[in-house]
Each structure stands twice: as structure tokens, then as C-alpha cells.
Design a protein that fits this description.
The protein is an alpha+beta fold. The protein has 2 domains: 7-80 and 91-337, Neuraminidase (6 Propeller); 414-493. The chain contains 3 helices and 28 strands. Strand 24 (278-283) and strand 25 (288-294) form a beta hairpin. The longest helix is centred in the last third of the chain and has 129 residues, at 392-520. Keywords: Coiled coil, Kelch repeat, Repeat. Residues 402-502 form a coiled coil. Residues 401-502 form the Acyl-CoA-binding domain.
Amino acid sequence: MGEGINGDACLAAAPYDHWVLLGPAGGSPRPSARYKHAAQVVQDKLYVVGGSRNGRSLSDVQVFDFRTFTWSALNPTRDSNQLNLENNATGGSLPALAGHSLVKWKNNLVVVAGNTRSLSSSNKVSVWLIDVETNSWSAVDTYGKVPTARGGQSVSLLGSRLLMFGGEDNKRRLLNDLHILDLETMMWEEVKTEKGGPAPRYDHSAAVYADQYLLIFGGSSHSTCFSDLYLLDLQTLEWTQPYTQGAHIAPRSGHAGTMIDENWYIVGGGDNASGSTDTIVMNASKFVWSVVTSVSARDPLACEGLTLCSTIVDGEKFLIAFGGYNGKYSNEIFALKLKARNLVQPRLLQSPAAAAAAASVTAAYAVITATDEKTRDIVATDDFDIKKAQPASSSKKFIAEIDVVNGEKDKLESRLAEVRDVNSKLKDKLDLANLSYGELAKELESVQNQLAAEGSRCQKLESQIAAARKRLESAGSLENELEVLRHQISQVEQTMATTQRQKSGGVWKWVAGSAEVSDDE
């Protein structure tokens, strides 16, 4: 992390692709540290709504002004038309929320879903509007098939429609359903997609690309974090898992993302063991990942539950990150000035042979196009006017030139066919290599599983051997003790035998003596 920038410095002077800390001007107070909040940029101001701190949800709206570098509280009042409603459970203040989503639409900030204790009686998703011009808010009545209440969902804006995917409901059930809210009619619709979509998850990220595709990345279940990428065609409602290239992306949950042109930027998150330190970007047209920059493991940006927005200052595009939790709650705001990114070519065109073939195709196509235009220009001239205005020799000259051009065109088309054939062969080789790679990967995985099983078996055998050794040692000790006891028993038996003989002799002597006395009598 580089040096911070305060209100006396120029944000546009910040280095490219490097996070800088934005310090409030004049020591103005910062808002409470938090995570699982929501944020959006509207007219040079960052609006932060709600969040969680120490298990308590927040209901405030904080505003950072990029022109003055100062924080202020918005304190919106409830729309006067709703103050006397019977279901007014929160009075005039905005409900305390965490794990909700926030999108900018017209003059409003639309707050969707989230965990709130003040409206716990409702088991359906709630929607609120914050009007930043009138400094007021209102609860919105929605219709149709209103989704189950949830937190940790993703919400993306497409025109006047909100696309909500996944999340975790109040009973901690994970979801992978898709719902669309029409903001013009406030009508909910549940969308049934084809099979093969993402597993149920929460704290993932989502983005809309080219007004036709919904991208879902990462998130977590109750036991693991994901690094997978899914794409939903909003016209066919079919899910696919694109083959991605570039940097290796670790699993993460609780991250934040924003789409700028065709680049999807993602920051923060974690895998239940540590925070993600890299800021990554995916070119959505090529599905190529790359790392923009990295921070240290204890940096405030290596956290979960932060927000990421974008804005333009003095013609430069910036990423804006705020809040989060990495063992400590954060209330810092960071900015990253984006460097213009070139389109990334697919990996196939990065090999020398394929690049040469592509260059040949490009050159051939350019020449053919120019030739076609030249031919069209020549042929487009009225033949009757040419014959009247030019002598016969000139006409023959034009015809000869046309023949030459057509000959060049035929040669170039032949060359183009050869290049296409080379491309086709390269593609076949690539497909074969991918197939071989897939088979080798499966074989490697099988061998790894066998090794793991053998390793586990070896550990069990070692434990059994150690136990047997202990038993043998105990047996040896017992055998020694038994030998001593046998010796003692032998001695006792000898002693008893001697004693018995002595006693037996004495008795017989007594009997014999008694007999002699009787005879004398």
C-alpha cells in the first residue's frame, strides 16, 4: 500500500494500478467501521448504506465527497406518504441492514434484500428507495412472485430490471435461484433456467456483460469456497462454464466486483483461512484473468465484506473500495487509478505459428478487400462512356489491368485457403492436446488418489506396528515376571515337600511308639 492522499492532494496524480488510501480533509470524522454494507457512487459522491459491526446491523447512510474529501451523514427522512402506514415497523428511520445489495437507478438508490431484525416478521425480500435529491426514503410494495428473504445475494442492474441470484435465507438454507424485478412495475418474476448452473451459494459476485450475459463468480457454501465462473445467456437461459485463461485465481468469498467496459474487476474476499491479497480483472470478451496489483496479507483490502465501486475523476477511471473485516473492522476508503487495458488475445493466437497464420490472414484479407474495391471502382465505370471517351487501346489496357487484378485476387484467395487450412490443422492439434491434457489430468488425479489411499494405509499399518511393538515389549516384561514367579513357586513347592516329609516321618514315629506301649501293657 502506498502513501495516502488527503484533501490537499490531487486524486488524479495517483499512480496507475496501485491502491492509495484517501484521508479525509481537515481531519473530518470517519464513519463507523463496518462490513457487509452496500455502496454506490452518484455524482462525485460515495454513498454507504448500513452494514454490520460486532453482530449489530447499522441503519445509517454515510456520504464521501470526492471533491472536498469529507464524510457526512445523510440522515434521510421517510416519505411523508408512508409515515402513517400500519406496517410502519421502523418509524421514520431507515431499517438496520446487513448483507443487502444497492444499485443506482434514476435519482434513486435501490436497496434490496439483506438481513434485518426490525422486519424479521416478513419472510419475503424487501425493497427500499433512497432519493438522494430529496434526502428521503420509502419502502416499496412489490408484486408477483416475491422471493424468499435472504442475505449474501448478488443483484445486478440491466436496464430497468434487477437480476437477483442466490444467497442464504433466514433458515441458513443456501440458494441458487434467479429472480428479476422490473423497477418500472415493481413486479417480481422467478426465472427457470436450464440445468448446469452454479451450486447454491452466498457472498459471491455477479455482473452483466453486453446486456445479454449474467456472470457469476466465487462465493461459498457452508463448508467450502468457490473459484468457479458461470455464464448465463439471458436470451436462451442456458448456463455454461467458460474455459478461462491467464492467471490462476484462488477460491474466495465475500469479495466485491464491478464491471467497467468489458473488464470485470474483483478485490478482497477470502477462503475462511486468509484474505485474498490480489486485485484481479477478467476480460469478459476473452475470459482471460490477470492480476492488477497485490497487497500484504494484513492489509485492510485483504478482507471480506467490503464494497467496490467505480468513478471518473478528471477524466481518469478509478476503483473505490470501502470497509470490510479481516479480524478488524475497517472504515478506510481506498482508490486505484486504472491504466488502459489492451484487449488480450486468446491463447491460441499467442503461439508463433498461429500468430504468423493470423497475420497472413489479416494481410490477405486487407489486399483482397482493396482489390475488390479497386475492381468495383473500375467495373462501375460506364462501358459506353469509356468506349466513347477512350480509344480502343485504352479499353484493352483497362481490361488487361482487370485481368491482372483478378489473377492477383485468385492467388490471394488460394493463399487465404492455405492459411485457413493451417489454422484448421492447428485447431485440430490444439483440440487433441486439450484432450490429451484432460486424459492425463484424470490419470494424474487417479494416481494421486491411489497414492493418498496408500499413504493412509501406510499410516494405519505404522500405527498397528507401533501398537504391536508395545504389546511385544509388554509381553517380554510379563515373560520375565512369569519366570520369576515360576522360580518362586518351585522354591515354595520344594519347601512344602520337605516340610511334608518331615511331618509325615514324625507321625509314623508317633504311631509306632504308641504301638510299642500297648504291647508292653
